[in-house]
Structures are given as structure tokens and as C-alpha cells.
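Thread: Modeling a multi-component assembly for a lab meeting

Hi all, long-time lurker, first post. My supervisor asked me to bring a structural picture of a complex we are working on to next week's group meeting, and I have zero experience with this. I have the sequence lines for every component (350 residues in total). Could someone generate the structure of the whole assembly? Inputs are pasted exactly as I received them:
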Amino acid sequence: MTEATQGQTEGKTFQPRVFSGIQPSGGLTLGNYLGAIRRFVDMQNAEDLTGVEKIYCMVDQHAITVWQNPEDLRRNTRELAAGYIAAGLDPSKSILFNQSQVAEHAQLAWIFNCVARMGWMQRMTQWKDKAGKNQQNASLGLFAYPSLMAADILVYHATHVPVGEDQKQHIELTRDIAIKFNNDFGVDFFPITEPVIEGAATRVMSLRDGSKKMSKSDPSDMARINMTDDADAIAQKIRKARTDPDALPSEVEGLEGRAEARNLVNIYAALNDQTVAEVLRDVGGKQFSDFKPMLSDLAVAKLSPISTEMARLMETPDEIDAILRKGADRARAMAAPILQQAYDIVGMIR
Ligand code: TYM
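Re: Modeling a multi-component assembly
Sure thing. I ran the full set together rather than chain by chain. Output:
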């Protein structure tokens, strides 16, 4: 992170701080892992970020913007925490907790509901996709979702948010909310947050349709790899993944117009910590019948240890809950003074 990107407003440089979150609204996918969790772990371990707080949340209040069965929500929250830890997040280095444990998120979100404009929310593609044709029947929470997301980030004065490509618009809205709050009240209080969208797999696509994002809500399980899939399931899904009949190119330009081929190469590159160009140097000229077994061996080798560890952690849910409670205490200690200052700025008597 360079100085110029440290969440600067015109007059003030903020301490760098990292925040991100994932919804516990179903199982974790390879998209969540490559687009988000791997980046969380990289940032946790980056030497140049020593001393920077990293805060990673399970955003249960976002999950309930669409119906969640209570038992499933509890289980999915713990499973997400297990996924974070199994993938390499260390609760002594990163702060892990679930959103509803730190009330300050929802409290700041209310202020932001009064700063943000209806028109801003209406333009959000996630709102349009999720609410579909029947917007009148969507929850009010789903509409206000980006305002809560801005509060998640800004209640910590977070400057950097690692996310997949699909969250970019929400981070831009977070910046708009910070700017409007600062302008409305004539302060330099909230930082202008930077999205961190990096790596070969910022947008992992469906295995069945290269024009659609890989998603936990896709009706077809064959479209995604779940972090809890076993080796046979992973191999079968990759074998059946849609491709075209041509051999793989040896140059990146050769993937132009070949969405499915590009997706599989991106996944390979991300799993193997290589660039797409490096992968194509090795596999250019191969048919998919040769490349797919390589990809499935790699995916199994990288993902199986994580799913095994997740299953082990899930045997002791009390330990997961204790980690989250401790994380929430640390998070609250950071969020509470920032919320209080925001209340002062707005004119609320304490
Ligand atoms: P969510 O739960 O949909 O996804 C969690 C993270 O995974 C990334 N992701 C992907 N990346 C690459 N390819 C894919 N196919 C793919 N699918 C998902 C997402 O970009 C995201 O980084 N609104 C957020 C959660 C949230 C949040 C926040 C994030 C709430 N508050 C504050 C950052 C900061 C969401 O719905 O992510």
C-alpha cells in the first residue's frame, strides 16, 4: 500500500487498516476462496502490513436480507469461521468475529441510511439482480444493504478492503457515503476506502456457463466447486466443466472470446500462485482432455487439506464461538470510539 492510497481525504492521512466480510448464507465456494479468503490470508501475512490491523467478519446481518433458516444461519456462520481459519487466518493475527456481535455496525448504518440517497441504492447491480422483477416484495434490508456494508468498513476507519470484482460497486458507494458525510458535516472524519481487487481469480465464473459468476446461490451444484466438496466431486465437476473444442493457446491473447477456457486457466493460475501467462507457457497446445486432469489434481491438492481442517474444527463449535467472541471484543474496542465521534458530529447527546 503506497502512501497515496492510504485512505486519504483532502486534509488527512488515515492509518492503514484492512476490513472485509463474507456472508454466511450458504457454503463457501472456490470463488469466495480465490477472490477473497486467499487475499485475506496474503494481507494477514504480508510483511509490509505488519502492525496494520486486519479485521475479517462473517456478515450475518447481511445474510438475513434474504430469508435464512435460523439453524442453517448458525451452522453456516460457524462453517465460514472454520473456513477462514482452515485457509490460514490466525485469530491471534487477524480479528475474526460475526457482525451482529458488534452492534456499532448497525448503529452507524442507521446514520448512513440518512446520508445515502434512494437513487444510489437503486443503481446497485446486486440489488437489481437479487430483487429481480419483484422489487416491491424484496426486504427493506436488501435495499439498504450497501449502507450497512459502508458502516462495516467505516466504523473501523478501514482504508483497504480485499474483495472480488463483484463488490467493486459497493466499495465505490462506500466512498460516496464517506464523501457526503464529510461534506454534509464539514469534517474530515471518514477515510476514502480503496478496494483491493488482485490476483488471477477476481471473478471466478460458473463451470457451466462462462458468462455467469460462480455463486453459492446457483441452482446447479455442478456450476461451482464448494470448499466442502470431496476429491471425487471436484474431479467430476472439472471433468464436466464446459469448454470449447480448441487446444489451449500459448499466449494470453489466445483466450480472447473463450470465456470457459479463460476461467479454467485463471483458476489454475490462482491455485498455483502463477500468472496466466506463466500457466499458458506450460500448457499451451494441450487439449482440455489433458489439462482438466491437471487442474483437478491441483484443486484437490490445494483444497482437500482445507476441507479436512474445516470438518475437524466443526467438531468443536464451542471453540469456534469462543474465538468469535474474543474477536468481537477486540473489534468493539475499535468501533465504539469511532461511532461515538460520529454521534458527536451528527449532534447526538451522549
Ligand atoms: P459475498 O458473501 O457474496 O462474497 C464474499 C467475497 O467473495 C467474493 N466472491 C468472488 N470472488 C471471485 N469470484 C467469484 N465468483 C466470487 N464470488 C464471491 C466477493 O467479491 C467477496 O469479496 N457484500 C459482500 C459482503 C460484505 C463485505 C462487507 C465485503 C458485507 N460487508 C464489507 C467487504 C467489506 C458480499 O455479499 O460478499
